[in-house]
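At this stage, I put together one protein's amino acid sequence and its backbone structure tokens, which the following lines show:
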Amino acid sequence: MKLADSYYHSTDVVALSKDLIGKYLFTCIDSITTGGYIVETEAYNGIVDKASHSFGNRITPRTKTMFMQGGIAYVYLCYGIHEMFNVVTSVEGQPHAILIRAIQPTEGLEAMQYRRNMPVVKPNITMGPGSVAKALGISRNINAFSLQSDTIWIEDRGLIFPDEAIAAVPRVGVDYAGDDALLPYRFYVKGNPHVSKPNK
């Protein structure tokens, strides 16, 4: 069952980021369905968050998607190489987003291997946000697509991790954000092999 559109309208992006752990992310690109359950996320708390693209109410052709009503995909290019998929949350004008950093693949593994050019399946097939997008066929072509669409969506299949199984730690690669870089806005399933940078 797809998560209801209203699920994404919560204004608490940090709680939502944790709640998405264990939810199933799917895409159907070129008639091929691929997906798995989310094991690592990062919350970006809009205009007050120095690590966010929308910090200080910055509206650009790239960030304008973040200012739309929650429940859509925000896909951007990082370092000119990796496409990254974020879930836009909250209400229109409040640019919250959750970066999906890793999934545990469950469906369409052969298609993921082909997209990632991996003859042998290794944990890094969906480890890190660039790998997730590539494995699932996510590109900027589907930026601003609704998560109610049949192209990209998230389901609740009843998988729940207890609090003690989920780590809450600082985000990755946001050193420029000063104090905000230290906020425990990254969540991951402890011990999962697909997690990009487990804190030892």
